Amino acid sequence: MAGKDPERSQRLTAELWAPRLNDAASPRARAVVLLDLARARLADDDPLWSSLAEQLGKYLKAKG
């Protein structure tokens, strides 16, 4: 699109989410922030969600 600057957009997104990521005290809290970031950027029908749910399910099942 004319007038769009993808590098600036990525930089602003990183600046927006950096404080939340830095404040996350544990790996689990950091994962929650990363999931929130993904939810903010991806559509609900994006195929990533089914893959992510499958992988998280496997991880949680393995952890007991």
Description of the structure:
By secondary structure, the chain is mostly helical. 77% of the residues lie in helices and 0% in strands. It is built from 3 helices and no strands. The chain has helices at residues 6-23, 27-41, 48-63. Helix 1 (6-23) packs antiparallel against helix 2 (27-41). The longest helix is centred in the N-terminal third of the chain and has 18 residues, at 6-23. The radius of gyration is 15 Å and the shape is flat.
Which secondary structure elements does this structure contain, and how are they paired or packed?
Layout lengths: L5 H18 L3 H15 L6 H16 L1
Helix pairs in contact: 1-2
How would you describe this structure in keywords?
64 residues; mainly alpha; 77% helix; 0% strand; flat
